[in-house]
Amino acid sequence: MDALEPLLASTFTVAIAEIGDKTQLLALILAARFSHIKGSKTAIILGIFLSTLLNHFSAAWLGNWAIGLISPEHARYLVAASFFAIALWVLVPDKVDCEESRFYKMGPFIATFILFFIAEMGDKTQIATVVLAAKYDDLALVVMGTTLGMLLANAPVVMAGNFSADKLPLTLIHRGCAVLFALLGAATLMF
C-alpha cells in the first residue's frame, strides 16, 4: 500500500480540490460551447488530459527539483506549511470568465488544451502538485495521480454537459478539502 500512497493521495487530493475550481467551471463552459459538435466531449476530455499531464508534470518536476535544494528537515516544514496554506486557499471560491475566447475557433480539442493549460498556471491544483511532488519522491505516481484526479472531477462535468455546479454544496466541499490539506500538513509534520 505504501508504494501506491503517492498515486492515491495525489488522485484523491486533486479530485476533491478540483470540485468547484475554475478549471471545472471551464470544463462546463467548454462542454456547453461545443455541444453542437459531434465528438466534442471526447475532444474536450482528451484536451483536459493532455493539458493536465503536461502542466502537472512540469509542476511535479519543479517540486521534486526544488525540494532537493534544502535540507530534509527544512523541506518537511516547508511542505507542511504549503499544505496549510493551500488549506486556507481552497476556502476562497474560484470564478472563471465566461467571455468568448479567441481559442474557440480552433475547435474543442485545441481550445481545451490551451485554455486548461493557461487556467492551471498558478491554480490550487497545480500548486498542490508541486507540494505533493515535494512530499513524495515518486514523480510518475504523483503526476498520474493528479492527472487522474483532474479527470475524475472534470470528465463527468463534460459528459453531463448540462450539469450545473450550482447544485453542488460547494461551501461544504471546499471546507472538506481544506480539512484534507490541513491533515496532509499535520501528517507531514508527524511522519
From TrEMBL:
Q: InterPro entries in the record, alphabetically?
A: GDT1-like
**What residue intervals traverse the membrane?**
43-62, 74-91, 103-119, 139-160, 172-190
Q: How the protein sits in the membrane?
A: Multi-pass membrane protein
User: Which intervals of the chain form a coiled coil?
Assistant: none
Q: GO molecular function: any one?
A: metal ion transmembrane transporter activity
* Any one Pfam family match given in the protein's UniProt record, by short name: GDT1
Assigned GO CC terms: membrane
Alphabetized, the UniProt keywords read:
Membrane, Transmembrane, Transmembrane helix
Spell out the PANTHER family in the cross-references: TRANSMEMBRANE PROTEIN 165, TRANSMEMBRANE PROTEIN HTP-1 RELATED
Q: Which family does it belong to?
A: Belongs to the GDT1 family.
Q: What is this protein called?
A: GDT1 family protein
What is the scientific name of the source organism? Shewanella violacea (strain JCM 10179 / CIP 106290 / LMG 19151 / DSS12)
